[in-house]
Amino acid sequence: MGKKESTVENRVYLFRDLAGAWLASFGDQLGAEDEKIRQRGRDALAEIAYISCVLSDTETLDAKSVSKLIRKGS
């Protein structure tokens, strides 16, 4: 398996695990009647996807550098 395939696979597994944990606690937001609450839920999953990508793509960086990238956002 090449580096690129490994990174994509890592992204998928990390997102699955983090999103699963979030859904277990806050998944009801996605089915809420209030659009603002539903949007917060979608935003949270989007942030989890972003963080999963950053973590997978920066496996050679130290924790402080990764933290700066995550705080900086897209």
Mean pLDDT: 90
- The helicity comes to over 70%
How far from one another are the termini?
A: 28 Å
Number of strands: 0
Low-pLDDT regions: none
What's the domain count? 1
Secondary structure class reads: mainly alpha
How would you name the oligomeric state of the polypeptide chains in this document?
single chain
- Report the β-strand fraction as a percent range: under 5%
Give the SSE string.
Answer: HHH
User: Per the principal axes of the C-alpha atoms, what is the gross shape?
Assistant: elongated
What is this entry, summarized?
This protein is an all-alpha fold.
Describe the structure.
The protein is an all-alpha fold and 74 residues long. It has one domain (3-72). Helices cover 77% and strands 0% of the residues. The mean pLDDT is 90.
Blueprint (SSEs and pairs):
Elements: H1 3-26, H2 35-57, H3 63-72
Helix pairs in contact: 1-2
